[in-house]
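Q: What would this complex look like in 3D?
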Amino acid sequence: MTTTAATFDAAAAEASDGGPVVVPVALGDRSYDILIGDGLIGRVGALMAERLPGARAAIVTDANLAGLHLDALEAGLEAAGIASSAIVVAPGEASKSFPVFERVVDAVIGGRFERGDAVVALGGGVVGDLSGFVAGVVRRGMRFVQIPTSLLAQVDSSVGGKTGINVAHGKNLVGVFHQPDLVVADTAALDTLSERHFRAGYAEVAKYGLIDDAGFFAWLEANHGAVFAGGTARTAAIATSCRAKARVVAADERETGERALLNLGHTFGHALEAATGYSDRLVHGEAIAIGMVLAHDFSVRMNLASRDDADRVRAHFSTVGLPTRLADVPGDLPDADGLLKLIGQDKKVARGKLTFILTHGIGQAFIANDVPPSAVTDFLAEAAV
Amino acid sequence: MTTTAATFDAAAAEASDGGPVVVPVALGDRSYDILIGDGLIGRVGALMAERLPGARAAIVTDANLAGLHLDALEAGLEAAGIASSAIVVAPGEASKSFPVFERVVDAVIGGRFERGDAVVALGGGVVGDLSGFVAGVVRRGMRFVQIPTSLLAQVDSSVGGKTGINVAHGKNLVGVFHQPDLVVADTAALDTLSERHFRAGYAEVAKYGLIDDAGFFAWLEANHGAVFAGGTARTAAIATSCRAKARVVAADERETGERALLNLGHTFGHALEAATGYSDRLVHGEAIAIGMVLAHDFSVRMNLASRDDADRVRAHFSTVGLPTRLADVPGDLPDADGLLKLIGQDKKVARGKLTFILTHGIGQAFIANDVPPSAVTDFLAEAAV
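A: Here is my prediction, written as structure tokens for the whole assembly.
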């Protein structure tokens, strides 16, 4: 744990230089940097001029974020001599749809943006997933700059190149892998986030500890208050999360193996999101918080992990105010068979077999293929009590 | 020329073994084979079982091709134990549109095809471009098998991984690079092609000679009758074309350099297609036949190539019945300024500069950046006379 703790100190020190923390994502000729720091949105223009010379900016954002940050972004772009235009979509998951996708594609092409120009995503996961898909397909691939404004987007969806939209059959079933050229995470943008959405993003931060970094999880148990308060602890948590994800993505860009570890809690979580209609009843981070607790409980039941570790996970999530039980979901849920059916519809199904991310304990997650569906229904039937 | 001629003999000999000619496309972990031979559609099932074990088949085809070849394809798949379903779109360029794209995406997802399953394109360039884009985005990338049924698709659009649809602003402006896992070119399918469309595909065959293989062009001048008649000469011409394209694509998969040579004749040609509304007035191969003649004439005018070489190109295209002059296009065309405007809208524009593929003579094409627009309008004004 000492080694891991030292890493956090380094990250905090870097940030305290005044310059942004730089997290490189090593993907050969698709490598890029994630820059993390306070008040970076106004500096995106200068950063683009330095790193993507000559690129114009097709900004994609939503109506809420436009009101908060678009002026600062545009002023910085103009000061750097970068021509831009802004495409504003409606806030919310409904914008990850074919009609909105088509409208943004048309607007980018109609704006005469070329391959060397950049789609610039200013927003959370919805804006990032939608505009990354647009950047991936206009002229068969434009440059892409992400300015994630939610904690979830800063630590998860803006790292790794997954883009996509939803269709009637499910979420993110249509998209491409398209790596950004630059990610700029402005920690000041998180100050406008609701407590509920910050907490939801925090579930993904904790996930990196649970996957393979017990020291980071222990640090979060001790320092979550400082992370929620902002400042260097928050920046360090974000940088540690980005580094963890960057490591996994560099090793397995297209999720043919190890990258699936990032889905810890997501198989149960996606089923719960589907069961609640992807509504405000349960936002993504809340669903995977419950999913991660269930994954640990299920691992205990399968005699893979200790009860103590599973209890620590549930206790920590409770402490920060995240839901941890099926009973914490407002309203009715399907029964165990109904949930299993939703799990089977999840896209991470290989040739009809059930794949789960299970664990031997905190920081020891692994990919379990061929989990017997009956064990899952038995477990869910008990968990629902 | 002797070396090149020897290559054709080898190709013809391979084909005469009875087995298909195999053209490997070397793209690292995205490498695949093109199989060329007579009567292969019925063997696609066996080939898939051997090369993509376990993959189910989401067949995409058009109403015309379905009538001609779908039974044979489905029977072969069934005999090989491969589950399949067929999605039939309307014949013609109009199917390369957002609404049809969305419908096919929905049908593939609704059919519960997974990442390891294959979209199987049975058809010409339209079906291939559309279904390749679908395969590239469903679940962020499925397997893809192409069964090109037109000469144009066999020698051009099914090699190299370019996929896409059209939008109001232009053709192929939305798509991805998505390499197939297998291409099966059944030369028997060409027997149902109209003379006009065979000729149009032949323009792309001749293009490979004009780019960098003077020996192949000379062989075509001598043997075009046999290529049009079918048999081993036709197979050899197709295999040579596929090898030439595979070489270029392997060197420059995403068209950042040399691959642009494949656009010989396409800058003028696309402008003519746009000017004629992508209608039956001028099909793609006819447009690029005129475009290639213009590219040679323009090179002569720029003192880059000899008049003799340009005359040979025009003479050969005339001999096989392809159009070679602006005046050969039925109906009115825009004037030189109008055509230049259409050229500027072509997607192969880098930062506002005009890029053309010009030539020092037959088999000596090169990429010319920064061609002065005034030289183009002067040339087109004369060519229009």
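A: To summarize the key features: Chain B touches chain A at residues 54, 98, 102, 105-106, 109-110, 114-116, 133, 136-141, 162-164, 167-170, 173-177, 254, 347, 349-351 (CB under 8 Å). DSSP finds 14 helices and eleven strands in chain B.
Q: Very helpful, thank you.
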